[in-house]
Amino acid sequence: MNHGFRRAYPSALLALGLTVPFCAAWGLYDQTHSLLWVVVAVACGLEFFPLELPGGRQWSTSVFCYVWAADQLGFGAASTTILFSVIAAFLRSAEGKLTGAHLKRLLIALGTHQLALIPAYAALHRALFLPYLIRSALAALVFEFVRAAALALTQSSTRRLRDFAAAFRGLHPAAFLIPASLAALISARETDWTVTLPTAALFVGFLWLSRAHAHLAGECKSTRQMYRVLAEHSADLVLIADPAGQISFASPGFLASAGLSRETLVGRSLFDLVAPEDFARFDELFTPSGADGQEHELALEIDGLRVDVALRVTFISSGGPHSSSYLLQARDLAPCRLRAADRLREERLEAVGHLAASIAHEFRNPLTTVMGFVQLFRSQFDEAAPGAYEAIWAELERMKDVTDSLIVLAKPEAVKPIPCDLADVAQSALRACDELALERGISVDLGPLQPAPVLGHPGQLRHMMVHLLRNAIEAAAETHGRVVLSTASTEAEAIVHILDTGPGIPDSVLEHLGEPMYDTQEKGTGMGLMVVHRIVQQHGGKIHIRRTEAPTGTAVEVRLPIHRG
């Protein structure tokens, strides 16, 4: 479509629309038939009750009023009917607004109607050999297609015409036959109202049914979209399969993180996704009687990925033998098991905390007294046995550290958190471990100590780092390795990283670290890592311990919420 036509065509429609009032005036002057005003009223009323077509489209059956007026009362009477019905449709859609754009749209609508009336009028008077019922239906079809084509040309697109043609393909023939039959009965020379009135009632009922059907179809579509959105945004794996097991719908859920998409699942068989050891069990669930809607634990194997899931299978029957399907919802059990392990760990820590409270209370006061007297008689110890004081004091310090750890487990320190920098805390903890590193012959290297501000208890954080450094030094001493300490920060977290090149912790041991009475050392009690976990938890952070391979060793990473003071 060239540029000149796009500019001239709307102007032509506007000019044609301006002719409608003149044709209507000529029709009213030339036609005094009282039935014309009945037809006009019916046409205007039908504009407020359009026929609902599939796909949410609407079609005004007032076209049959135009056809009847054109056949029985002439072209001018049809123009009169068009003028009033288009104005009624405009008032229905304009919502009380009247601007230049609205007036232009009204004139274009009149122009497209008048343009479509010409071939429809010709079809009525050229096909006299056909029964009136067939002629009126044919004229209505011609009118609507020409009008739709004219509107499509105003938008420089044929999509509107294709949409209208698609709507016609889904339109029931009764939409043409009932109005055409009513028009044929009214146009008879001797009108039989005992037949005409029931036909009119049938037509009104058909309009009402079409609106009710459109309303139900809209509700079904809305519900279908809502459930599709819920399924697609669910964290669970949601599948719909036919009775043969072929997947027709898939929402990957938790499998999306593993790179599995809807396209990789749709069309596959459900039986290809089940682990071999659970195949027989799934075969029992995938039956109308076995699909009880309850959760069953089994394993899935999808493209090399194995996942333990809680699977819920529901049988959906639509009444027909070939319309049934199965709805499957699989929930990943790994997060649930992880939460259960965390709860169990917290319960153990709480139990140990209650025990630690009583032990710390009994030990602290006597220990303070003993340490005071040992310092008081330091000279006597040195005279009795050189080095005895240092040995006794070291053991007492060790007992004090254990008591302090018990206090941390028993009850958080009742001190208001203050801003502190993990880099400064790390340097302080390193100074406290210098003697142990020198004794073990281990080099402790400082990596980048970037500022890492947090809001917390400096004493507890120092205690946490001292314990982690001591563990790293003891591990590195077994292989004459080294220890690296560094700090960093991101937009949301402050990070402490401690790496040792010791023998490394076996994977079977990693998952138990931090549990009471579990330690990697033969004489350990697991108290130290329990305290570390409790301190990290109290500061709202996370600790991650993993084995490294290049070089072999253990990496500990503590992440705490950063403080933006």
UniProtKB/TrEMBL annotation:
<feature type="domain" description="Histidine kinase">
    <location>
        <begin position="358"/>
        <end position="564"/>
    </location>
</feature>
<dbReference type="InterPro" id="IPR036097">
    <property type="entry name" value="HisK_dim/P_sf"/>
</dbReference>
<dbReference type="Pfam" id="PF00512">
    <property type="entry name" value="HisKA"/>
</dbReference>
<keyword id="KW-0418">Kinase</keyword>
<dbReference type="InterPro" id="IPR000014">
    <property type="entry name" value="PAS"/>
</dbReference>
<keyword id="KW-0597">Phosphoprotein</keyword>
<dbReference type="InterPro" id="IPR035965">
    <property type="entry name" value="PAS-like_dom_sf"/>
</dbReference>
<feature type="transmembrane region" description="Helical">
    <location>
        <begin position="106"/>
        <end position="124"/>
    </location>
</feature>
<keyword id="KW-1133">Transmembrane helix</keyword>
<protein>
    <recommendedName>
        <fullName>histidine kinase</fullName>
        <ecNumber>2.7.13.3</ecNumber>
    </recommendedName>
</protein>
<feature type="domain" description="PAS">
    <location>
        <begin position="223"/>
        <end position="278"/>
    </location>
</feature>
<keyword id="KW-0067">ATP-binding</keyword>
<dbReference type="Pfam" id="PF02518">
    <property type="entry name" value="HATPase_c"/>
</dbReference>
<dbReference type="InterPro" id="IPR003594">
    <property type="entry name" value="HATPase_dom"/>
</dbReference>
<dbReference type="GO" id="GO:0005524">
    <property type="term" value="F:ATP binding"/>
</dbReference>
<dbReference type="InterPro" id="IPR003661">
    <property type="entry name" value="HisK_dim/P_dom"/>
</dbReference>
<dbReference type="InterPro" id="IPR004358">
    <property type="entry name" value="Sig_transdc_His_kin-like_C"/>
</dbReference>
<dbReference type="Pfam" id="PF00989">
    <property type="entry name" value="PAS"/>
</dbReference>
<dbReference type="InterPro" id="IPR036890">
    <property type="entry name" value="HATPase_C_sf"/>
</dbReference>
<dbReference type="InterPro" id="IPR013767">
    <property type="entry name" value="PAS_fold"/>
</dbReference>
<keyword id="KW-0547">Nucleotide-binding</keyword>
<keyword id="KW-0808">Transferase</keyword>
<keyword id="KW-0472">Membrane</keyword>
<dbReference type="InterPro" id="IPR005467">
    <property type="entry name" value="His_kinase_dom"/>
</dbReference>
<keyword id="KW-0812">Transmembrane</keyword>
<keyword id="KW-0902">Two-component regulatory system</keyword>
<feature type="transmembrane region" description="Helical">
    <location>
        <begin position="12"/>
        <end position="29"/>
    </location>
</feature>
<feature type="transmembrane region" description="Helical">
    <location>
        <begin position="73"/>
        <end position="94"/>
    </location>
</feature>
